[in-house]
Specification:
4-stranded antiparallel β-sheet; globular; about 120 residues; 4 helices; alpha+beta
């Protein structure tokens, strides 16, 4: 849908089950969007901490209470705003470059954990 709407949806709740989902339920360290753009598939990466922080500090332009198959509540952001501010494009990186990006995120996470 991002190719059509130019928006990025961040799922945070399942209204069908009345439970956390997506961002608020994940145990992952990273969040990836795979998008159809530039004539093919692109992939963008950020870490969960940064995404949570971004959402806390940047109001979505729209909140969808019930979307998808009526099983998703979504924060909507403009693609051309959230991607360059928060995400790193990774589909065009080689293995060493990708590993470097992951190392950077993991090192930042570890620094935050040591401070807490």
């Amino acid at each position: 849908m991002a190719a059509k709407t130019q928006n990025i949806a961040v799922e945070y709740f399942n209204p069908k089950k009345n439970s956390a989902s997506g961002l608020t339920a994940t145990n992952s360290d990273f969040w990836v969007y795979c998008l159809l753009e530039d004539g093919g598939m692109t992939a963008y990466l950020t870490d969960i901490f940064s995404l949570l922080n971004y959402i806390s500090n940047n109001q979505p332009f729209r909140v969808v209470d019930v979307g998808g198959d009526k099983n998703a509540s979504l924060f909507m952001y403009k693609k051309d705003k959230i991607l360059p501010e928060l995400f790193v494009r990774i589909d065009n990186l080689n293995k060493d470059e990708l590993l470097y990006i992951f190392d950077q995120y993991i090192n930042e996470r570890n620094k935050r954990c040591l401070k807490e």
